[in-house]
Model the fold of this input.
Amino acid sequence: MNEYDPGNGVVIVKIGGSVLTFKEKFFEPRTEIIAQLAQEIKNALPRLGGLILVHGGGSFGHPVAAHYLLQKGYASNAPAIALTEVEDAMRKLNGIVEEGLARVGLPVFTVQTSAVARARQGKLAEINTSFFSELLSLSLIPITYGSLIFDETLGYTIVSGDDISVKLAVGLGAKSLIFVSDVDGLYDRDPKIHPDAKLLRKVSLTRDHVIFGEVKDVTGGIRNKVENAGLAVSSGVAVRLINGLRRGNLYAALNGEDVGTEFIE
Ligand code: ATP
Ligand code: IPE
Done:
């Protein structure tokens, strides 16, 4: 099959678990937000050259991984059932997200992460980008998620949706990558701890100094997101971080408007 020609360029959207779920309530999706985001994607879709969605774990994947002490994505003494349960939790959330998107008529198609990605030494090493291209060429919206993948050296590793979206963006030469989170953008320090934190509308990943709050999740939180974003920015992908809890933001960002924080070199 021919490689997909994106025309206007592929857009990759990573929707954080903090947007899709109530993080403090175990296995509780934000169904109204999912429906809202689905409608915004639907409205913006006609002008996009292709769209790939990646989602995080929120109160589905993270607590299960933490229960098995998979804090660094891997624990040599974790029982095999830990792998079953983490993937199962992620697929439950994926099913909810997929259904919410399909309900407004979006032709989404889930790609099970461990079937297309491999890790080495705890890091995402490869992802089958041509499979995503094939789905795009069928006018589908591929959707995948942070989860457990097999690792050539460690056995397995938990890979974040952030890492997957950056790898896809670089591998497919995406036009843009939009991180959807529960904050208005990147601040000079954690806005949830420092109410006087300043929102940065444009951040140079090589020059500006940003202070990150304590990382509580198993995949490295915002620090990992920002560090990885640099890889996409330096390969020519336009990258921004927006607040998905604010109505209209995702639609605006998909339309190329200046919302949230733009990351530059
Ligand atoms: P999840 O919240 O589920 O892990 P996500 O992808 O939506 O997934 P994070 O990667 O955790 O989001 O990043 C967003 C969080 O990072 C915010 O809720 C905020 O509290 C925290 N944070 C820490 N430091 C900063 C900072 N300097 N600027 C903005 N947010 C920050
Ligand atoms: C987490 O993916 C995957 C698992 C914990 C299994 P992410 O790291 O992308 O999730 P969020 O967006 O931070 O919730």
Residues 16-19, 56, 58, 181-183, 186-187, 189-192, 210-213, 217, 221-222, 225 surround adenosine-5'-triphosphate (ligand 1) (CB under 6 Å). DSSP finds nine helices and 14 strands in the chain. The longest helix spans residues 80-103. Residues 11-264 form a domain with the Carbamate kinase fold (CATH 3.40.1160.10).
